[in-house]
Design a protein that fits this description.
heterodimer, membrane (chain B), transmembrane helix (chain B), cell membrane (chain B), Na+/H+ antiporter subunit E (chain B), Cation_antiport_E (chain B)
Chain lengths: 124, 163
């Protein structure tokens, strides 16, 4: 493997490690659940991204073949991270936040945790 | 008839490609298995996804994906900066409400995902009628600016793509 590739791969690995560390540090430093959600949905995404790029470069320069697994991991990560964050946020809101603390939805119906959907309301 | 057999052509193609990516080698057997998966899975899941999503303007899709990828990189650096160098008592976290003009469920899902992955915002909840979205900002001095930025930068291209 050429030296330049080794340097590049190492750089991506270190960068990924730094972002992963910062994201985890965020979990300690931020004060409530909603703030803590920002750490794992962002800082760690780039951390994992860097590690995956390093992995792709490594297998490309040793085996000569492009591996698709890293792309799929990225895809699955982008599909699952926002949905998990949304579930956590909704659970947190319904257990800890009174509806008067949230801003109004500015529409006819309120937020989905407190209000029934239009279809349910029609049935009654 | 074709609509019944292939309810989501795009989903079928994606599933076949994902299968080929998972096994990481393109052989005739894998291609066949991928095709079978791409045909069977959408039929089984069709009851949960009754409407076919319309996707138009592929160029805007490509531009949107690139824009979001770039914003994710920027978001990471910004959030890392805030976490490392701001005192946690200085954070001004706020809820903001974004009234939606999008109506297609697929478009709203993509928008919510985008909001979560990009700078300092997490989408928390939809309105009961799906016409507004509740967003949590990690640190902002100007909630109106954040709202307008999300509407301009992400909602407008999504409206062109899905509607």
């Amino acid at each position: 493997m050429p030296a330049i590739m080794e340097i590049l791969i190492s750089a991506f690995l270190i960068l990924g490690g730094v972002f992963g560390l910062v994201g985890s540090f965020g979990l300690v430093k931020l004060r409530d659940t909603m703030q803590r959600l920002h750490g794992p949905t962002k800082a760690t995404t780039l951390g994992i991204g860097c590690a995956l790029i390093a992995s792709m470069l490594y297998f490309f320069s040793t085996g000569g073949a492009v591996s698709f697994h890293e792309l799929l991991i990225t895809l699955f990560l982008f599909l699952t991270a926002p949905i998990a964050a949304n579930f956590i946020a909704k659970t947190y809101i319904i257990r800890n936040i009174d509806r008067s603390e949230l801003p109004a939805s500015s529409r006819e119906y309120g937020w989905s945790v407190y209000d029934d959907s239009p279809a349910l309301r029609r049935e009654e | 008839m074709i609509r019944r057999l292939i309810p989501h052509p795009l989903l079928s193609i994606t599933l076949a490609l994902v299968w080929l990516g998972l096994v990481n080698t393109v052989t005739l057997g894998n291609l066949l298995l991928g095709t079978v998966l791409g045909l069977v899975v959408p039929i089984i899941t069709a009851p949960y996804w009754p409407n076919r999503a319309k996707l138009s303007r592929p160029l805007i899709v490509v531009r949107y994906v690139l824009l979001v990828l770039w914003d994710i990189v920027v978001a990471n650096v910004q959030v890392a900066w805030i976490i490392l160098f701001k005192r946690s008592t200085d954070f001004r976290s706020r809820w903001i409400t974004i009234p939606l003009e999008l109506t297609s469920p697929e478009a709203i899902t993509v928008l919510a995902g985008t909001i979560t992955m990009t700078p300092g915002t997490v989408s928390a909840m939809l309105g009961a009628d799906g016409r507004s979205i509740l967003v949590h900002c990690l640190h902002t001095d100007d909630p109106d600016y954040e709202r307008d930025r999300i509407k301009q930068r992400y909602e407008r291209p999504l409206k062109e793509i899905f509607e």
